[in-house]
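User: My advisor asked me to double-check a structure prediction for Copper resistance protein D domain-containing protein before group meeting. I don't want to rely on an old file, so could you generate it fresh from this sequence?
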Amino acid sequence: MSYLIHFHLLAAIAWIGGSIFMFVLGITLTDKEKQREVYPHVGPIFGYFELVSLSILLVSGIIMIDTDGLLDLLLSDETNKVAELLKMKLWLVLSLVVATVIHFFIAYRTNNKERTNLQNFISRGSSLFIFFVNLFVLHYAIMIRSILA
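Assistant: Sure, here is a fresh prediction for Copper resistance protein D domain-containing protein from the sequence you gave:
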């Protein structure tokens, strides 16, 4: 099991680091013409990279929950700090997955096309949501790992 945490950490670094990179790119690249030149090229590469990272995170996380005996803890009525933190982290992860699906759907459907105002709002809003929720997921992961260590 110990190797799984390494895959999970590498995928988390890629996922969160990529999110930070795209957040900074979105803030600093204010010229609309440059955005039209950059995003159609960077977006799909980044998207596939992030999907691989997210898949590794989900699979390794599920396996670690099972092998660490946390699944029984999650399904029981017993309450303790680890179970509370893990439940909160899992709800945040679920919301990240939903926001990612929504964002990817719009991004790939509108790549190299003009977006409507609603598509822009949802795409940018989901990106911002993903960015900030990532930080909360990381916080809960650190808290859980510090208790289990």
